[in-house]
Specification:
alpha/beta; Rossmann fold; 4-stranded antiparallel beta sheet; globular; binds adenosine-5'-triphosphate; membrane; ATP binding; ATP hydrolysis activity; cell membrane; ATP-binding
């Protein structure tokens, strides 16, 4: 049921790819405001398909996805652009403009608020430039403001991506394997920054993770996928490693 506090809701969502593969098979769940959800499962279980169906990077074939009560499958044009502003995305590969400065990369998060010609010319208000500094402070990277992105470590790049997302002022952040290419210590730092989005900004976070250990450590709730279906959905503090292991058994692989 959708309440005023529900940020994300999947209602009977299925996705069949053109080759016949059922990426998602009747997915139902809702996420209240400020919850940190980890989605775990084997490679090919449907985690990316699930995440990408929220901001319409893929089109679902059945059901509805609601963000803040609005059915994302029904919005077009300006409304779609507006809806996408509410959804921040964090990727495994960071998706920064490597040759641009940290400042430019963070300001790019504001793109949805400007006409395209202004962003192409790099015209951002002084207010937004100050905001970029504020966001970088939150991820402890303000000292890198004028450094080029390609000079940063993987962990620093992901934190720039988090600051960029904050510029959007999102209500929901989706992170697809955000720490998959980082070492364990750096991963912990990035996970903590994601956790802080929930803690200090009350942002709802949905993160695809390979690591059950990280899911148990940072998430409020763990959703397990297998062959496109939800096979596990429980609070993290009521979960244990042995039960979670079940998600990884009996799969196709
Ligand atoms: N564009 C596509 N066309 C056809 N089938 C696809 C496509 N993308 C994904 N699939 C299939 O859909 C299923 C779910 O894939 P998905 O990438 O969502 O899984 P995942 O859990 O994110 O895996 P990984 O961790 O490897 O990214 C898999 O069987 C996959 O092969």
């Amino acid at each position: 049921m959708v309440t005023a506090e529900t940020v994300l809701e999947f209602q009977h969502v299925s996705k069949r790819y053109r080759n016949g593969v059922l990426g998602l098979d009747d997915i139902n769940f809702s996420v209240p405001k400020g919850q940190f959800v980890a989605v775990v499962g084997l490679s090919g279980a449907g985690k990316s398909t699930l995440l990408n169906s929220v901001n319409r990077m893929i089109e679902i074939t059945n059901g509805s996805v609601l963000v803040n009560g609005q059915d994302v499958t029904k919005v077009r044009g300006r409304k779609l652009r507006h809806m996408r502003r509410q959804i921040g995305m964090i990727f495994q590969g960071f998706n920064l403009v490597e040759r641009a400065t940290v400042q430019k990369n963070v300001l790019a998060g504001r793109t949805g608020y400007y006409p395209t010609w202004k962003t192409l010319l790099g015209w951002y208000s002084t207010q937004d430039q100050a905001l970029a500094v504020e966001q970088l402070k939150k991820v402890n990277l303000v000292q890198k403001l004028y450094q080029r992105a390609d000079q940063l470590s993987g962990g620093q790049k992901q934190r720039v991506a988090i600051a960029r997302t904050l510029m959007q002022d999102p209500t929901l952040v989706l992170a697809d394997e955000p720490v998959a290419s980082l070492d364990p210590k750096t991963s912990t730092g990035v996970m903590r920054d994601l956790y802080n989005l929930k803690k200090y900004e009350k942002i709802t976070v949905l993160v695809n993770l390979h690591s059950v250990e990280l899911a148990l450590k940072y998430a409020d709730r763990i959703i397990g996928l297998r062959d496109g279906r939800i096979v596990y959905d429980r609070a993290a503090d009521q979960s244990n490693q042995a039960e979670l292991q079940e998600i990884y058994e009996h799969g196709k692989e």
